[in-house]
Amino acid sequence: MQPPFIAKKPQGRRDRPQRLNPLSLALLAALACVPGVSGAQDARPDPPSAGATAAPAGGDAPELAGVTVTARRAEERAKDVPLGIGVIDGEEIEARRQPTLEEALRGTPGVNVWSDGSPHSANVLIRGTGSINPVSTDDGAVALSVDGVPMSVRNMSLGTLDVERVEILKGPQGTLFGSNSRAGAINVITNQPTRNLEGYVRGEIGQDGQHLEEAVISGPLSQSLSGRLAIRNSGSDHWVDNARTSEPLSKPRSLMFRGSLLWDGGPGTNALFVAEREETKRSPGLVVLRPYGDPPSMDVTPGLFDHNAKLVERYSVTINHDLPVGRLTSVTGYTKFDTDFVGGYDARAMQAMFGMPAENMQRSMMGGHTTSQDLRWSSRPGASVFWVAGVNLSRAERSFEQLYLSRNFGIDRRYETDSQALYGEVTWPLTNVLKLTGGMRHTWDRKSYDATYGGTVPDARKLRDDYSTGRVALSYALTPTTNLYGAWSRGYESGGIGDHPTQVADSVPYKAASTNAVEVGFKMESASRRFALNGALFATRVKDDHLLGFDAATLATSTVNADTQSRGAELQGVWRLGNGFSLSGGVSVIDAEITSNVSGVSGGAIRKGNRSPDVPKWSGSLGVAYTQRLSAFMGLPTPVLNARLDYQYVGTRAADPQNHFDLKKYQKVDLRIGVVSGGTEVYVFGSNLLDERYDLYGFAPTATAYVGAPARGRTLGVGFRYDF
After folding, report:
1. What global pTM score does this model have?
2. Beta strands in 295-383 (DSSP E)
């Protein structure tokens, strides 16, 4: 059966959706939010995952459960946090078939992701704010933390294996997450070992050679020790063809595992040990000449991307110990990454740009490691006064080597960063219904850089930066079920040396960027906890955002600064209607623009008033889930039907800061239908049912050529999951 918003067209033409205007979308989304995302409180929406027991059809809908989050480095209910938060539940991620963090974020209204399809390129913007052009591996406006361990912002494509939840913290988070969080932070929490033996196996196969195999087992190892092991193997044929062979451009593969041990040292004391590794192979970065064609293709040497690889590792130890007053937490982390990547312009793009039909490729080899230590003292969950104070230390070393294949010219760069910070935040009840929040962080950064150009020309730089970030907020309990809040916050992104200098003159350190943001909002839940809704109005100003500069005469690259601003509103929620139905959805409207004239930028000069790239004015989503007990059939005891339909709308957005052209709006529809019996589920799925070839990004390298990256088209498949 077709979704109600799809109109039938004459045979021979691909079905296209009827236009859904933003006002209609807003009215629909006023009922709810992105499936599984609720800043008011974060509830797992229907249907349950495989192995779960569904509520009887026609029975009362279950209550929404307020979820505990760690958005402020300590446990508290999301409803009580005086800032915008979205939480994507792990079961929701699986049900929507979002195998990477990038895909989960891309499906969230108000969160935009720029990516060339490779595992090292994702750039995230929240509420219209983020780095316009990330000019280095360290350059980013949205911080990433996994189980409390900071990771490079270039790892936003990490797999979502065995994830409990993903917290999206909106607006500057410099108080608790440091420099690279001036637009927000992504906080990923993975599932911990359990005291009961449990686990599951899951498999999927679909079109274009897509496959996924996953297994998790968790349980006790001794009286005080529990363990958990999760592993995933996945792959597919690439959705872009090689024009010379008419075969897929490559066959990307990913292998990921995570092992964890949880030691219970008695009441109030525990330690969690985690080791994680993910390796992706044969993933190309897409630079496809527009229009893409059907099917989209690149004109490159066959097998060019066969040796592309990225390895990410994370090791951490988290220790909690309850004191007579508060809780002491220590998080020690070590992360490592290695990337070997070939990418660039294919022969078609070079022909359109310069009249030379010869591919122009370069090999980039990046590697590095970071050691971090966070020690904090915080209030216990449920305390009348929330507070947290801590110290954070980190040291990062990385290298970036580039070899220009067509010129036999190489550059070897090395970067080091030492950072120390003190931070604290408190929420103090002024009255029974009014609370004041204040937080501050002071950071000391020391950075160094040295490079060798062409094997003979040396270069070295050093810089230091001391800065403070913070926020102030007021929250008011309008009713027992509704909170109002207002907040001001300041974010900061320290300066550095870009990854793209080709000569000594290019390596002048770039300026720091700073953000000031205000928001007012509400968070409410019905007395029955079947309905939750929250919303916010926000405004953000950024000074000295980063752009990649380029001098065509000398081929010199640099970092150029621009000011920006964004204003908007968002609404999100969830509603359990009963009789097995639930609705969830969200809508975001953002007006983001560049507020200064900029010259000397790659792609041409930028005018004040240009729209910020990759930010649609309107975006939204709506999810419908249905759970129903079925009569016994085929010998299945107590079968349960699980079905969900997800719809996403992303409006027109500027492709680049010069506003050379727009990326078209698109509508994405996903469907999943499964039957659960006991601990077993068999399901069918359809991703991108409308077969929209929407853009992952786009830009104009010259006045005569536009390039970009198309997303994967329609995929149909089947899956199986067994829980024990």
Report:
1. 0.88
2. 297-298, 309-322, 327-345, 360-378
